Write a sequence for this structure.
């Protein structure tokens, strides 16, 4: 089991134990709007941000993130990357 001292000694890109972070910006919408042939205007961005879909993106991203993390750790386990627990 990792101790608090060991945990604090691990250097991560974002600090505080955070090793990955996803940040969506208004500019990311431009590519998706273009794909769906939606005009990239202030009005359309505001309409999107007002939808319940937009408000659920963070929750959905966290849920999908757990699946992604599981896939990557599972692959690493299959590849023999990690030590197994003793218990």
């Amino acid at each position: 089991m990792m101790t608090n001292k060991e945990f604090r000694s691990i250097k991560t890109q974002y600090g505080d134990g955070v090793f990955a972070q996803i940040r969506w910006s208004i500019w990311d919408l431009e590519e998706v709007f273009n794909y769906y042939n939606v005009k990239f205007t202030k009005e359309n961005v505001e309409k999107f941000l007002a939808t319940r879909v937009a408000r659920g993106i963070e929750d959905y991203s966290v849920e999908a993130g757990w699946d992604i993390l599981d896939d990557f750790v599972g692959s690493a386990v299959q590849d023999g990357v990690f030590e197994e627990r003793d218990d």
